């Protein structure tokens, strides 16, 4: 999952854009909103969800705990309640390592092409 950098983030994202970012269904995002009050997109006319950077970061944390670490929703809620700062730092480190790995893989591919 490659989340865009801060410079690339828009002010608001639609639910379909956020779902594509994380490769999940829109219904899962709506469900997580009910389960995690920290995910609270702004609702425009017609109940259209508009996700801010903070919402996307919170979704990234839930995604990390549930989809990558395999915690239950209750376990993810407890982890965020007890140790949010450590969870945030761990998720950031994992994201950075994934970007480094992708960059190294691209370099390796280029080197194989040259030789």
Number of helices: 4
Low-confidence runs:
none
- Give the radius of gyration: 16 Å
CATH architecture: Orthogonal Bundle
Name of the CATH first level = Mainly Alpha
Helical amount:
55-70%
Average pLDDT value?
87
Number of strands: 2
User: N- to C-terminal separation?
Assistant: 30 Å
Strand content: 5-15%
Structure commentary:
This protein is mainly α. The chain has a single domain, classed as Multidrug-efflux Transporter Regulator, Chain: A, Domain 2, CATH 1.10.1660.10. Helix content is 66%, strand content 5%. The chain has 4 helices and 2 strands, in the order H-H-E-E-H-H. Strands 1-2 form a two-stranded antiparallel sheet. Strand 1 and strand 2 (48-50) form a beta hairpin. The longest helix is centred in the C-terminal third of the chain and has 42 residues, at 73-114. The protein is globular, with a radius of gyration of 16 Å. It starts with 14 loop residues before the first helix and ends with a helix. The mean pLDDT is 87.
């Amino acid at each position: 999952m490659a989340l865009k950098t801060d410079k690339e983030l828009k002010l608001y994202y639609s639910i379909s854009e956020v779902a594509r970012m994380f490769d999940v269904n829109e219904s899962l995002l709506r469900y997580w909103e009910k389960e995690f009050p920290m995910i609270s997109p702004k609702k425009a006319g017609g109940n259209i969800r508009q996700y801010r950077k903070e919402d996307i970061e919170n979704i990234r944390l839930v995604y990390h705990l549930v989809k990558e670490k395999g915690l239950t929703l209750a376990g993810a809620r407890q982890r965020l309640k007890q140790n949010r700062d450590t969870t945030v730092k761990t998720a950031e480190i994992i994201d950075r390592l994934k970007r480094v790995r992708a960059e190294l893989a691209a370099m390796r591919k280029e080197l194989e092409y040259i030789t």
